[in-house]
Automatic annotation (TrEMBL), chain A:
Compartments (UniProt record): Cytoplasm; Cytoplasm, P-body
Annotated family: Belongs to the snRNP Sm proteins family.
Protein name: U6 snRNA-associated Sm-like protein LSm1
Cellular compartments per GO CC: Lsm1-7-Pat1 complex; P-body; ribonucleoprotein complex
BP terms from Gene Ontology: deadenylation-dependent decapping of nuclear-transcribed mRNA; mRNA processing; RNA splicing
Residues spanning the membrane: none
Keywords: Cytoplasm, mRNA processing, mRNA splicing, Phosphoprotein, Ribonucleoprotein, RNA-binding
Automatic annotation (TrEMBL), chain B:
MF-aspect GO terms: RNA binding
RNA-binding in keyword set: yes
Organism ancestry: Eukaryota, Fungi, Dikarya, Ascomycota, Pezizomycotina
Keyword annotations: mRNA processing, mRNA splicing, Nucleus, Ribonucleoprotein, RNA-binding, Spliceosome
Classification via PANTHER family: SNRNP CORE PROTEIN FAMILY MEMBER (PTHR13829), U6 SNRNA-ASSOCIATED SM-LIKE PROTEIN LSM2 (PTHR13829:SF2)
Subcellular location: Nucleus
Pfam families per the UniProt record, alphabetical: LSM
Binding partners and assembly: Component of the heptameric LSM1-LSM7 complex, which consists of LSM1, LSM2, LSM3, LSM4, LSM5, LSM6 and LSM7. Component of the heptameric LSM2-LSM8 complex, which consists of LSM2, LSM3, LSM4, LSM5, LSM6, LSM7 and LSM8. The LSm subunits form a seven-membered ring structure with a doughnut shape.
Keyword Chloroplast in record: no
Family (UniProt): Belongs to the snRNP Sm proteins family.
Physiological role: Component of LSm protein complexes, which are involved in RNA processing and may function in a chaperone-like manner.
Protein name: LSM complex subunit LSm2
GO biological process: one example: mRNA splicing, via spliceosome
Domain Sm intervals: 2-76
Length: 132, 98
């Protein structure tokens, strides 16, 4: 009890939302894992969000190295189709273009803030590690 | 291992966790492991509108390395006891170093 293994055991073979350190959201079935939270997901789709839109991209099997895992959420199967009213499904190309624009805008903002912080003698938060 | 033991005493309490990407999640602390990975049940995401991907999630596993803060119920923390334990641990460490 009280090991990483015990925590992940309950989630095995369940449908999960996996959020990675680079901001990706993967939805799939957890099939295998180890003590470092390295994970194998089956029948994975990637859901990309931009503005008030989202799109699903079928991806297949994922083997994720543990250090890239932010969190792992168990999907409530009774509620998984209740998509919040704040987002609507859109074609992949449209969402992808919008996301690219958003990402570029954020990158520019981050760069500006980090250089200002550095000029004042502060190390940027997460010491350069990106987290979304 | 002090904080591992400390968090173990807080299982089944409601805590709020803030991640390094500013998401705040309230839920019942179900378990914690040696890396301070945390499992939460009956979760509620504060400011859910900003994180629609978490709308249908009922329980979650959070990797210890991405946690910024854990907010605890004040009544469940014996600060005096924690201070004593911390000093004892520090003394042990100093003893080992010598």
């Amino acid at each position: 009890m009280f090991t990483t293994a015990a925590q992940l055991l309950d989630l095995t073979d369940k449908k999960l939302v996996l959020v990675l350190r680079d901001g990706r959201k993967l939805i799939g079935v957890l099939r295998s894992w180890d003590q470092f939270a390295n994970l194998v997901l089956q029948d994975t789709i990637e859901r990309i969000y931009a503005g008030k839109l989202y799109a699903d991209v079928p991806r297949g099997i994922f083997l994720v190295r543990g250090e890239n895992v932010l969190l792992l959420g168990e999907v409530d199967l009774d509620r998984e189709d209740d998509i919040p009213l704040s987002v609507t499904k859109a074609p992949f190309e449209e969402v992808f273009e919008l996301k690219k624009k958003e990402d570029n805008k954020r990158k520019l903002g981050d760069k500006k803030r980090n250089s200002e912080l550095q000029a004042l003698g502060f190390e940027p938060e997460h010491s350069g590690e990106i987290l979304f | 291992m002090l904080f591992f033991s400390f968090f173990k005493t807080l299982t089944n309490q409601t805590v709020t966790i803030e991640l390094k990407n500013d998401i705040r999640i309230r839920g019942i602390l179900k378990s914690v492991d040696q890396y301070l990975n945390i499992k939460l049940d009956e979760i509620e995401v504060l400011d859910l509108d900003k994180y629609p991907h978490l709308s249908s999630v009922k329980s979650m596993f959070i990797r210890g390395s991405v946690v910024r803060y854990v907010m605890l119920p004040r009544s469940e923390v014996d600060v005096g006891l924690l201070e004593d334990a911390t000093r004892r641990e520090a003394a042990n460490q100093a003893g080992k170093a010598r």
